[in-house]
Amino acid sequence: MHCPAVRNMRRFVRANSGRLTSVLKMKPLLARRNFVRMRMPWSRAASQAADALHGGAIAALADTCAAIGTIRLLPEGYTTVTSELKINFIDNIRSGAALAEARLLHCGRLTMVWEAKIYEERTRRLLAAASMTFVMLEERAKTNSHSR
């Protein structure tokens, strides 16, 4: 597996301030070269009408956890987007917090594939299993759209 050096995670956290990850109160707990752990507390805002954690919030947690790992491994001058996300929902929570753990399965020239498992934090009961593929894209130079 050929992957560049691990990057600092602070850039990701700063860039997502006020976005979905901060709205859902997702918090990175641990980031290593091929492994990331995140926490997301249950909240009414992240739940559906029956008060269970919304499937979209669980999917966002899995995707964000793997995205952090991908971003940390990107070559300089590259960005990434999720090109595929597949998730199986197994159980749910109505209180407490969800814990996501993502592991790198493949790091190629243009893609990375991760798997994530989402657990109930206290009991480690499995809530969902997901796989994500990320495409690596060269960053385009930012230009001022008002100058012509």
Structural notes for this entry:
- With 148 residues, the chain is an alpha+beta fold.
- The longest helix has 19 residues, at 55-73.
- The N and C termini lie far apart (44 Å).
- The chain has 3 helices and 6 strands.
- The protein is globular and about 45 Å long.
- The protein has a single domain (10-138), classed as Thiol Ester Dehydrase, Chain A (Roll).
- Helices cover 20% and strands 40% of the residues.
- A hairpin with a 5-residue loop joins strand 5 (111-120) and strand 6 (126-138).
- The protein has a 6-stranded antiparallel sheet, with helices on one face.
List keywords for this structure.
globular, Thiol Ester Dehydrase, Chain A, 148 residues, 6 strands, single chain, disordered N terminus
Write the layout of secondary structure elements.
Blueprint (H helix, E strand, L loop, with lengths): L9 H6 L4 H4 L3 E6 L2 E7 L13 H19 L4 E12 L7 E11 L3 E10 L5 E13 L10
Antiparallel strand pairs: 1-2, 2-4, 3-6, 4-5, 5-6
